[in-house]
C-alpha cells in the first residue's frame, strides 16, 4: 500500500466508533462551506434592483429568487439524507459545494427569470442538504465532548456571512456589476471544495435515514421538546426582526444611516453570541437555550416599553443579535445529543422546523404589524420567545442527554 493510501486509512473512523483526535481542519472547512452557502442565499437581497433591471423583470419577481431557495431548502433538508443514504458522506458534502459553484455560475450567466430560478433551486438543494448533515458530519470529526466547540466554529461562518454578505455583494455589484457578485460566490465555492477535499476523511454512511425514522424520532421527548422550543423562538424572532426596520424608523425615528449601523451592530453581536454560546453549551445546553430566548424576550419588552429612547433601541437590538447568535449552535447540539446515532435525520428535522418557524413568524408578524403597527410584531416576538424559554425550563427534567 502506498504512503498516500496509508494516510487516508489513518483518517478513516470505523462505523460506530467515536473519533479521539479532533479534525479541526475539517471543521474549519465546514465553516467555510456554510459561509459560502449563506452568502449565496442572501446575495440577491443586496443586488436585487440592478439584477431585476438587467433581466427585464420586476423587483418583486426577482425577489422570488430568495423564496425559491428557501422552499427547496426546506424540502431538501428532510429528504436529502434519505436519498443519499448509501453514499460516503464526504462525497455528499462535496456535492453540496458543487451545487454552490454550479448555482452561482448559472446565476452569473442568467439571461432570463427561468435560468435565475433554476440556479436558486440548485442552491436550495445544496443549502438544505448541507444544513441537515452539518451537525452529523461535525459529530464524526471531533469527540462528543468537543461537539459544541466544533458547532460554534461552524456557525462562525454563518455570523461572518450575515455581517459581510449584503454590504460586500452591494459593493462588488456597484463596482463590477451584479453578475460579478455571483462569480465571487462561485470562487468562494471553488476554494471551499479544494479545502474540503484536502481535510475531510472518508465518512461511510452509519445509519439508514427514512421517513418512518423521522416520525419515530419526533416521538422522543427530547426531540419533541426541542422542536416545540425552536418553533416558538424562531417564529417570535423572525416576526420581530423582519419588521425591526419599520420599528426603528417609526418609534425612535432613526435615519437610514443610524439604522444601518444598528443592524451592523446586530450582526456583530450575533458573531460574539455564537462564540459565547459554544462555551455555555459545553456546560449546559438547556441553559444556553433558555438564556438566549429569555434575553431576546427581555430586549423585545425593552423595545416595546422604552423603544422611543435612542440608546435603549440601539442597545436592545445589539443584545438581541448577541442572544440569537447563540441559539442555532445550541439547538443543533441539542438534536445531536438527543439522538447521536441519527444525527442526519435530526438535522433534517431541525432544518424543516426552522423553515416552518420562519414562515409562521413572517405571516404572524405581518398580521400584527397591519393591525397594531411595528409594536405589534415586537410584542409577539417578546411573548413567543418568553414562552420558549419558560417551556425549556419547565421541561428540563424530561430532556435526556
What does this structure look like?
The protein has 401 residues and is mostly helical. The chain is 83% helix and 0% strand. The protein has 16 helices and no strands. The protein is globular and about 55 Å long. The protein starts with a helix and ends in a 6-residue tail after the last helix. Mean pLDDT is 81; it is low at 1-16.
Secondary structure layout plus pairing:
Blueprint: H1 3-11, H2 24-46, H3 48-55, H4 59-83, H5 89-108, H6 113-141, H7 147-176, H8 178-199, H9 211-218, H10 221-241, H11 244-250, H12 256-281, H13 285-306, H14 310-338, H15 343-372, H16 374-395
Task: Describe the structure in brief.
The protein has helices at 3-11, 24-46, 48-55, 59-83, 89-108, 113-141, 147-176, 178-199, 211-218, 221-241, 244-250, 256-281, 285-306, 310-338, 343-372, 374-395.
**SSE ordering:** HHHHHHHHHHHHHHHH
Q: How much helical structure, as a percent, in the residues?
A: over 70%
The residue ranges in which pLDDT falls below 50 over 5 or more consecutive positions are 1-16
Q: What composes the largest sheet?
A: none
How many DSSP helices?
Answer: 16
Mean of all residue-level pLDDT scores: 81
Taking the alpha carbons of the first and last residues, their distance comes to 42 Å
**Gyration radius, in Å:** 21 Å
Structural class: mainly alpha
Q: Strand share of the residues?
A: under 5%
From the spread of the alpha carbons, the general shape counts as: globular
Number of strands: 0
